[in-house]
Amino acid sequence: MSYTKDDDKKPVDHQAKREKANELKERNRKAGKRQYSKKTDHL
To answer: What is the superkingdom listed in this entry's lineage (predicted)?
Structure first.
C-alpha cells in the first residue's frame, strides 16, 4: 500500500461552522419552531 497525502485539501473552519449552526438553532427557537410540548400524564 502506498502512502498518499492530500496537501491540496482546504482547511475547514469548524468553529465558524458551529457558530452558524448555533445561530440558526437560536433563530428557530425564537420563532417557536420545534417546540417540545409533550404533556405528562403521570404527575
So the answer is: Bacteria
Closest CA to 15 of 23, 6, 3: 23
Q: What region, left, alpha or beta, does residue 10 occupy, with left being phi > 0 and alpha being psi -120 to 50 degrees?
A: beta
pTM: 0.50
The answer to whether the CB of 28 falls within 8 A of the CB of 34 is yes
pLDDT tens for 8-31 read 777 888 999 999 999 999 998 888
